[in-house]
Amino acid sequence: MNRYAIDKVEGLVTDVAVAAGVPRDDAALLADSLVDADLHGTSTHGVSRLNIYVRRIQAGLIDPAAELLVEKRRPAVLVVDANHGLGQVQAAKTLDLLTSLAGEYGIASATIRNSQHFGALSYYCNRAAEQDMVLLAMTNCEPAMSPAGGCEAFFGTNPIASSFPTGKGFPLKVDLATSLVARGNVIAANKAGKPIPEGWALDVDGNPTTDAAAALEGTVLTMAGHKGSALAAMVELFSGVLSGAAVASQVGSMYKHMDRKQNVGHFFSLVDVAAFLDPAELRARVDRMIDGMKACRRRPGVDEILVPGEPESRKAEDNRRHGIPIGEATLEELKTLCQEFNLGFTLVPCCD
Amino acid sequence: MNRYAIDKVEGLVTDVAVAAGVPRDDAALLADSLVDADLHGTSTHGVSRLNIYVRRIQAGLIDPAAELLVEKRRPAVLVVDANHGLGQVQAAKTLDLLTSLAGEYGIASATIRNSQHFGALSYYCNRAAEQDMVLLAMTNCEPAMSPAGGCEAFFGTNPIASSFPTGKGFPLKVDLATSLVARGNVIAANKAGKPIPEGWALDVDGNPTTDAAAALEGTVLTMAGHKGSALAAMVELFSGVLSGAAVASQVGSMYKHMDRKQNVGHFFSLVDVAAFLDPAELRARVDRMIDGMKACRRRPGVDEILVPGEPESRKAEDNRRHGIPIGEATLEELKTLCQEFNLGFTLVPCCD
User: Fold this and answer.
1) Which of A92, A267, B217, B335 is the most buried (most CB within 10 A)?
2) What global pTM score does this model have?
3) B263 and B328 assigned to the same domain
């Protein structure tokens, strides 16, 4: 896979988004969030999503210049209507509003409805950690998993995430879909025409399948059986039910439903570390926990214990040096978008 | 297993706790929480724990009449020192304080340090749900699980829980340890002299074991491999690190360490539903989600899809009618406690 210079990719994504009707500042934010995902090795949430966002803008399903509406307010709570704007843009704006509230009250929370797929939760969590705040983030997603006992796509892969600041040069970042594997991996396998491992998914009749396309028609399995199902329900309650967004099977599919809006719901709860203890002390305490994890006796064959966020941080370091890898399919989509918008396609594979 | 009348058990537990130095109101609260766990079928967090609490009071490791100290305050945040009081008592008192803050600010949060094992998280979550509030609760616990890649008891089984109000007669209750199974099950198997299923635990050398005692010396496995490990880390960060309590392997063991305090940490985040939407509307939305879950196409051999909290609610109904089952070992402990405190042992198995 060829690699490309980060600033060039960001520039191109920004230009495409602007051409699609997104205000320039918002387009830059979108580009930053997508490229950040590629940078950290989660390309399933990266630039590969730009094309579908643009197609949904063109279909009138995403409003590229939507206002963020705070519908209801308590001192430390915002009930937000994203007005079908870009998920990344509306979520980042909501996080900015929450940041000042959390600074004032110690904790602040927001629900966001009428939103879209908004990329990797860790993007928002890491932004918060940089300011010595801890964001707990959840979102519902288009139907993909069945509740325990069922075999019908009902819940999304409903991730939950949080990042804590450290003194290690990267945040301790927990970001996990409640599916056995992130659905993005199934989408990527399908795009690449590859099979998926056994145990990941059921087909539409409830039979185990290794066919990625059949899995996308059927259901991906929850992690840890009924526990993952329960956690997916909890994420749905906070992000879909409490927010007033579409719930579970009512959430629109980004790829399948080009005739209706997604109405995804998000839940943010933001803690100001300083309300609890000195941020420097918190970082030192997190660092000691990290040191303790890494010093644990290892299972046979394990060379090193990596803490959550550490593999992605190493990947980002590598990608910063050598450029971010972009797959052929995504590259072709970008070329087509540039042609359609009469933009020069400026990406050339970068040498080391 | 014999069953016993709920009010009799509660009365006995209260009397024992009072005799051990717990103020009567606090003793009644402790009894209510323990009996509530037995009532819902989670006897691992029920009356079976009374004996060790009393022994730790007698050893000076739990202060039965500790003051709850709010060390630090932001408008919507309480940083609490439980002063080594009973976990259940200090947590319930903190929840009461949070309830009025959440009513005012929409959301409020507390950390609690210098606490103990405090029973089932769902006890607090269900109390909140009864008041149309949603509590997100986490706690660290004595070391039991290794981070992914390791084989050393480091994290506790670190549960996370939340309950949402419904119109179904029971809350939708998510309460899950991040271990494959709750460590209480291993303790119960060990108490009963029974083996545990393969895959639950590793012995002290990192080898799989079905011996409950060996598992208690070794580590129980996280649910879902590295995902469960990451979630355990997140729970540790909120409840152990942010609170200023002991962290991971530093948490004292309730049974093994009769020479030092536990210093468990808890994290509570309490949302007032009314800050987001009308509580009646929320309940209706939760009910629709429940109906949707139950209506999902079922896998072969599955007669009914149960939602989280539903099995426990049915168990509670049965136990309310027929009395709560108490095992022989626990019964013997209760008898001994009554003898030591010169209390009449008033429990007789109840007829239907």
Assistant:
1) A267
2) 0.97
3) no
